[in-house]
Amino acid sequence: MKQKRLVGLALASLLVLSGCSSAVKDNGKYVVASIDGQKIYADDIYKNLSTSTEGKKNLFTYVLDQLIRENFPVTSDMKENASNIASNLENNYKNQYGDDADAQLESALTQSGYKDIDAFKDSIVQSLQYSEFLKKYVKANFDEVFDDYYKMEAPRKMSLIKVTMSDPANPTDEEKAKLEEIQSLLKTDKSFEDIASQYSDDTTKSAKGNIGIVDSTAKLKNIYGEEVEKAALTLEQGKITAPIQGTGGYYILKCTTTDKETIKKELKTIDVDSPLLVYDTYLVYLVFNTYDIKYGDDSVKETIQKIVDENLKTRTDLRKEKS
Amino acid sequence: MKKLLMLLLCGGLLAACSSNYSVKVSDSDKVIVSGSELNITKQDYFDYLLKTSGANEVLDEVLLSIADKELTDQKAIDKQVKEEEKTYEQYADGGLDKYAKSLGYSSKDDFVNEKIVPVVKLNMLTKKYIEENLETMISEYQVVSFKKIVVDKESAALAIIKEATTKEAFDKKLKEAGTNGEDAGIVTKNSSLDDNLKKKLKDLSKLDKDGVYSEAIKLSDDKYAVVYVYDTDHKNKDDLIEALANDSNAKEDVEAKYLKKYHFTVNDDKLAKEIKNISDQYLE
Questions:
Q1: Closest CB to B22 among A21, A44, A57
Q2: How many domains would you assign to chain B?
Q3: Reported ipTM
Q4: Cβ separation of A16 and B10 shorter than 8 Å?
């Protein structure tokens, strides 16, 4: 009886084995697939994929990904952070869509390329690992990175006052009157900040209209509209704009300061939201170059170095153009 | 205890089968990148490449091998490649070489060999099958060339059907209809069409004489379509083949038929599953 059971188990294991594709080899080389009279070897697939333009790009992405994973492993804080972001998202959907929230969220996640909420969380964790990778470099090279950021982005501290309008193109008399009153007050000695805290309809009202440090990475147009962003990025220190039609109303902007040292002081603490981590898309190549990486294959070394060198050259060219 | 060990062993094998690729590249253990906590072997990178684009690469490789067997007219391929190059040249701002480099290719030649030639060959392979089986494909995919006029009332539609007895008469009505009329060109059952009109394609594709379809087709928005079917003798062969080759479902079916004909097999479960995810017709 005991023997029968063992035979049964052995058969079961054979079934498991046969369920697994039996590796096919030809002259010691693995055959991935075949058609009549022709075999496709693993080496052929490797060669095609690794030498193609797409494959070369993939090589850098893969090595970078491994470098980040090994040097900045996932922490419980990252997991918790990702869970909180996901929970907030789920709650927002519940509040907005009620019983249909799950379906709406699933659809939104799919559209953004996530299989499910767990995949979304994984992606946030990966982003946080990536941030840590950049953060370490930025902290260690703060003066140099900040100087470059200041030169490239011309950051400034901004404040704003918003007058909400249901149809900004056709304001009501009441909305017009409120805007006119704010404009009149701005001609008096009352400060912009006090007017903002008393009259602004924006969420920054409690912060006296302060929207913080603004640069092109802040994507103000997504919140306030394109014209508001344009004005915010060009306004001189101490100046106040005329009312600008934007998203959901009119805006009056003030450039509080463009002073380098003031802004530098504010950005000294590098957190995940720091503009210093996102302003330069080529920073990753600079950081990658600081690691002592050894190559056991000349073509791999050549491919990676070429990608890094080309991108760093583009980065240098951009800075030359700017100056 | 022994049983438990065996069960664990079986379980381990199962896990190994379902989660990893079984195919190995030569020198798989060779470390290609190390230092700074890294220890990446050639196999690690191969697995990554398989995961990102292995299924598509195997399919492309196999279909291109089949194309090399099926397409024997090299001059025709070269001609088609040149034409495709010209099309890219037209749209590439600053020339094809610059465009190729902007996409990461080292030169125009690399772009032509890596991108254009495979696309041309696969397209010609699909068209070859369609050409050889044109009437069957036309019937299967309910291919029809038609013009249509949309009106609000059934009575108006029936009046047009009664009056537009010739091509010239229909074309006059079509012109008068302005934006309510159009030459839909060649459509298949997978084209983007009103659902009710799509249901009629089977009947329309069977018509063997050009002319106005005898019924007013009630559309899903409660309007009525009057349809004039043309090219029922399928003389417009090149365009019919082109339309079928552009139908992604038809293209998939054709590729599946070639793969079956050449007894396509994959020796890796994970890869096979990924290929089936692209189309369950590609592997039996």
A1: A21
A2: 2
A3: 0.79
A4: yes
